[in-house]
Amino acid sequence: MSGRKWSIFSIINYTLLALFAFSTLYPFIYILAYSLSDGVAAMKYPIYFLPKGFTFENYIQIFQDTKFLEAYKITIFRTVIGTALHVFLSALFAYALTKKTLPGRTFFTFFIFIPTLFGGGMIPTFVLFRELGLINSFWVYVIPFLYNFFNIIVLRTFFQQLPNSLEESAKIDGCGDFKVFMKIILPLSTPVLATIGLFIGVFHWNDWFTGTYFVTNKDLLPVQTLLNDLLSQSIAQADAAKNASQTGTSIGLQSVAQTTPESLRMATLMVATLPILCVYPFMQKYFVKGVMIGSVKG
């Protein structure tokens, strides 16, 4: 009887998990199929799993835009640099907070906690960035996001769980605090560091707000901020293609006719999302372990 009940439970459990996985995966399948479809054909016929009028024209249109390539570089650079600096400095700060002999330890903890409760607002933030020379600077994507209270607390909790005997043995051998941090603490903290890196890396990759409000130089815009501009351009191209097809005076616009604003938007979504989708599976093995070990225990 118990075996039969377990079998029924397994069937229901796996069925629900399969449905959940499908509901999570299907939007990406749909976006991929639409991005590889002829724009006009996609408007005429419904798309479920396979492209309609298979074409790479949508991606060709995107990568021919030099602004998009520059924006992609900005996004990659800010993600790599911002993530590396955030993880290293947050870990360094968290390690210092584990030392009970640190002067002003309680003050520094509340100092990084207060900004999580109060914010100056858009105008004071803009004025601050302007006085710091961050407006229209690449570093506006990096410096304001070097620290995060939640990430620091997670790292501090993880470091506190490491055996003190490791540090004591290293100091007996003549290692200073910084060398202990670099040679012992960081190598033992790979799960939580990978988890924090994933958190902040996804934020940097998806952030469009900073480029929209604090950057006016078109050469410094990230790819997410540029998506709306590309969509506006695609609408103009679609209108030009429609007018050309009605008059029949331009054959050169036939390739543009294969794209629509919707198909170009789907292609840009794939290009902007694919790198994170490729990185996440390699980080997933550290994700659960890092969150559980570095979690704040009540």
TrEMBL record:
Compartment(s) where it occurs, according to its Swiss-Prot or TrEMBL record: Cell membrane
Say where the protein is mainly found. Answer: membrane
Membrane topology label:
Multi-pass membrane protein
Question: Which keywords describe this protein according to UniProt?
Answer: Cell membrane, Membrane, Transmembrane, Transmembrane helix, Transport
Transmembrane stretches in the record are 12-36, 76-95, 107-126, 138-159, 180-205, 264-283
Q: At the top level of its lineage, which domain of life is listed?
A: Bacteria
What positions does the domain ABC transmembrane type-1 occupy?
72-283
Q: Which family does it belong to?
A: Belongs to the binding-protein-dependent transport system permease family.
Protein name per UniProt:
Carbohydrate ABC transporter permease
Q: Which organism is it from?
A: Metabacillus rhizosphaerae
Q: What is the lineage of its organism?
A: Bacteria, Bacillati, Bacillota, Bacilli, Bacillales
